[in-house]
Amino acid sequence: MTMVLVHRRHSRCRRWPHPLPLLSPSRLIETLSLIALCCLIQQYGIVGVHPFVIGMAGGKPGGWSSSSSGKLLQSSKNSDSLSDSINNSIDGLENDHAEEEQLEEVHNETNLQQSKTEQSNTKYIHGLLTTLESLLDKYIVSGSMATRRRAYNILQQIIRLSMDKELIRKAERMVRRSGMPMEMPPPLPPTEHVPAVDQQLEDEELHTQKIVKPMGAMIKSSLSSSPLPTEEEKQREIEVNKRLEWERKHKEKSEFMNKMKDNAPTTTLLNDPDVAKNRVEQLSSFAEDKKLLHDTMNGADLGASSPSSTTSSSSSTTSDISSDKTEPAFSDHDNIKRTVTDYNSIASAKSSELIARAGSGDAFLGSVLGVGGLDDVLSRIRRRVWIPLAAPPSLLSQLGIRPVRGLLLYGDPGCGKTLLARKLGDILSPARPITIVSGPEIMDKFVGSSEKNLRELFDNPPEIYHEYKKNYGEALSRQALHVIVLDEFDAIARRRGGSGGKGDQGDAGVARDSVVNQLLAKMDGVDVSGVPTLLIGLTNKPSLIDTALMRPGRFEVQIEVPKPRTTEQRIEILRVHTDSMARNGRVLVKDAPRDTAAWNVLQNMGEEGVQEAPTYDELLNIIAIECDGMSGASLAGVARAAASRALERAVTDFAGHLANDSAIEVKEEGEKRNSISDCVITQEDFERAIEDVFESSKGVDDYSASSTSDANSAKTTDNGAIDKES
Ligand SMILES: Nc1ncnc2c1ncn2[C@@H]1O[C@H](COP(=O)(O)OP(=O)(O)OP(=O)(O)O)[C@@H](O)[C@H]1O
């Protein structure tokens, strides 16, 4: 038996344990099978073991030998084919290894290249992500459509190019968090100019002009070439001439309008309300002219839109001041100087004029407004908020003053903050309805939605009232003040960064911070295109509001709406809520109006009863003393509860009579009376109502006490933040 050692040239293969795994499994099986076959045939024993080939030798010594190349050399006749096979196998093995090494190298190179590509892709995508982030920040602040378009394009690039799916997901998360809609933004509005498109439009316009103008001329020339024009043709010629003249005039107007859009504003503000009104009306007349021109150019009836009819229709819609002018609007040279800014200034002057009218005289008196015991508060609001809004804008700009943008009303629950804000809205926003929204309504569970809600609140003010729209049109729509009342303001304006600035409110805290940021941005007027807006924030907890919102220029005016402290204040509130009953003779008082229910009841009580009854003022005084410590809402509750006691008595009585078929009692001769017509509220009703309200509002009053201490610990400065006394 001979030990045959089969070598491999490759040094790596000489070590033990050698990489049998380098052989492909099929090759290994083939080799082993051949060796086993050899063993069986020649009946030799196993003679050699090699790390990668188990060699078998047998027969005569020297019948098998090893070569330097590691091949088995065969000298035996019987074993020719076998040794060939084995040698082939070994050749195959070596070739395999060479191929595998080559493959491995190629593979490594590819891997290297791929990782380089991935790295540079990741780097590029990170760049895009940074751009996207800054665009989204801008979008959160401005809500601008142009920014949204750019951000959307960047997002699409990331989705298209990123090799790393995680980066795509990250980009999408960023977009969702910003509140930007994922869908494609609407196409560019016509006001956004693209030079190439503009050029094309210009070319097209020139082309159309070429077609339109000769058409009129053609008709004219064809008419003039006719030897004997008929009556109809003459009429037609007049119409054509009129039309050509009309086109010329309106072309001038169009050029003027374009000039207004392109050029910088040139004129001063106009404060005279009549002039302002006139100018705004002229603008609307111009719009009408333009529409008629458009209709005519599109084939509307020539006669109906003839120059004479256009002028008369437009002048008939203008004010009486302009209607007595013989010259049509915009015909004199001065008008050419007007710009869009003029109309905005005029409308702005008109808006302040309307506010001035609404708040003049007794408008700020509590008794007129229906708000009791808050005359101090009302006079402060008048001075700080109404006066700058009612002043002519030109005067304000000369004085360097801007109307306030935010008013914070704070105080205990039920002290009349919402009531006051509503009434103020009527004075401060006479041209359009006010918007009242509760803080929690703005907050949305979806990331970015709260900011969006807030933006929409500012960006979509209600339309101005019809009569103003009719008279002053779009210009006033842009300039009339929009009053937004934010009830439960602390829900959206809480201090950022969680309590103590540690950001311990988790995701909800982060979301709320972003809402405050949005509010700050909106209040700072980043978006100059919006209508002027006054925010009125209402809260029971002023100390929770973010301090950045309190600085001058934002919620600059902060006023406490307190509980009624004196008997007089409570009397005023009670008077607001009982005035109607007393005037209608439903309160049993000595000075009840004649021939009312109360007066009739008094008559039946006799002289003594009348003497005992209090007057209306005395009754209010008695109740106000007994209601010490109550809020405005509780006092209103007392009035309601007393009335319902009297009503209960009367209805029960009446229903009983109905059941007995005696609903109508004859009290006196000829007079038909029943318990309903005798329904009056007595002093006793009020006293029992006070007990009821005290009983039912016990918990609320406890809460009031605690929040009073909170409010009291905060001291208001007239123009600035709320300072904690501690
Ligand atoms: N000063 C007041 N004069 C007349 N009525 C008042 C006054 N204060 C409160 N009321 C009555 O109480 C009701 C509730 O008041 P309001 O909702 O304005 O209080 P609030 O301060 O906004 O309370 P909250 O902080 O709980 O929202 C009012 O509708 C009104 O009928």
TrEMBL record:
<dbReference type="InterPro" id="IPR003593">
    <property type="entry name" value="AAA+_ATPase"/>
</dbReference>
<feature type="domain" description="AAA+ ATPase">
    <location>
        <begin position="403"/>
        <end position="565"/>
    </location>
</feature>
<protein>
    <recommendedName>
        <fullName>Vesicle-fusing ATPase</fullName>
        <ecNumber>3.6.4.6</ecNumber>
    </recommendedName>
</protein>
<feature type="compositionally biased region" description="Low complexity">
    <location>
        <begin position="67"/>
        <end position="91"/>
    </location>
</feature>
<comment type="similarity">
    <text>Belongs to the AAA ATPase family.</text>
</comment>
<keyword id="KW-0963">Cytoplasm</keyword>
<dbReference type="GO" id="GO:0016787">
    <property type="term" value="F:hydrolase activity"/>
</dbReference>
<dbReference type="GO" id="GO:0005524">
    <property type="term" value="F:ATP binding"/>
</dbReference>
<dbReference type="InterPro" id="IPR039812">
    <property type="entry name" value="Vesicle-fus_ATPase"/>
</dbReference>
<feature type="region of interest" description="Disordered">
    <location>
        <begin position="697"/>
        <end position="726"/>
    </location>
</feature>
<keyword id="KW-0067">ATP-binding</keyword>
<dbReference type="Pfam" id="PF00004">
    <property type="entry name" value="AAA"/>
</dbReference>
<comment type="function">
    <text>Required for vesicle-mediated transport. Catalyzes the fusion of transport vesicles within the Golgi cisternae. Is also required for transport from the endoplasmic reticulum to the Golgi stack. Seems to function as a fusion protein required for the delivery of cargo proteins to all compartments of the Golgi stack independent of vesicle origin.</text>
</comment>
<dbReference type="InterPro" id="IPR003959">
    <property type="entry name" value="ATPase_AAA_core"/>
</dbReference>
<keyword id="KW-0378">Hydrolase</keyword>
<feature type="compositionally biased region" description="Polar residues">
    <location>
        <begin position="704"/>
        <end position="719"/>
    </location>
</feature>
<feature type="region of interest" description="Disordered">
    <location>
        <begin position="256"/>
        <end position="275"/>
    </location>
</feature>
<feature type="region of interest" description="Disordered">
    <location>
        <begin position="297"/>
        <end position="333"/>
    </location>
</feature>
<keyword id="KW-0653">Protein transport</keyword>
<dbReference type="GO" id="GO:0046872">
    <property type="term" value="F:metal ion binding"/>
</dbReference>
<feature type="region of interest" description="Disordered">
    <location>
        <begin position="67"/>
        <end position="119"/>
    </location>
</feature>
<dbReference type="InterPro" id="IPR027417">
    <property type="entry name" value="P-loop_NTPase"/>
</dbReference>
<feature type="compositionally biased region" description="Low complexity">
    <location>
        <begin position="305"/>
        <end position="321"/>
    </location>
</feature>
<keyword id="KW-0547">Nucleotide-binding</keyword>
<dbReference type="GO" id="GO:0005737">
    <property type="term" value="C:cytoplasm"/>
</dbReference>
<feature type="compositionally biased region" description="Polar residues">
    <location>
        <begin position="109"/>
        <end position="119"/>
    </location>
</feature>
<keyword id="KW-0813">Transport</keyword>
<dbReference type="GO" id="GO:0016192">
    <property type="term" value="P:vesicle-mediated transport"/>
</dbReference>
<feature type="compositionally biased region" description="Basic and acidic residues">
    <location>
        <begin position="322"/>
        <end position="333"/>
    </location>
</feature>
<keyword id="KW-0931">ER-Golgi transport</keyword>
<keyword id="KW-0460">Magnesium</keyword>
<dbReference type="GO" id="GO:0015031">
    <property type="term" value="P:protein transport"/>
</dbReference>
<keyword id="KW-0479">Metal-binding</keyword>
